[in-house]
Design brief:
alpha+beta; 2 helices; 34% helix
Length: 85
Amino acid sequence: MYGLKQSRRRWYKHFDSFIRRKRYTHNYYDPCVYYKKLPGGEYIYLLLYIDDMLISSKSRSTIDKLKKDLSSEFEMKDLGEAKKV
């Protein structure tokens, strides 16, 4: 991602394509906020900042499934729960 002017854009396009295939929708006002409505009316949110993510949901199993899907497509580290937002 580093070094080339277009590499960040290319990475975002790849990420956007992947997450949309998983049926996530980007927020109309902020294209780096993705969400998906879960059965039972709950939501899962993914906030993307360059190459960092914050995932939020009431369902821990849904978060774990999303992290598993992401790690199958991208090289990533799980830094645990957020200490500051």
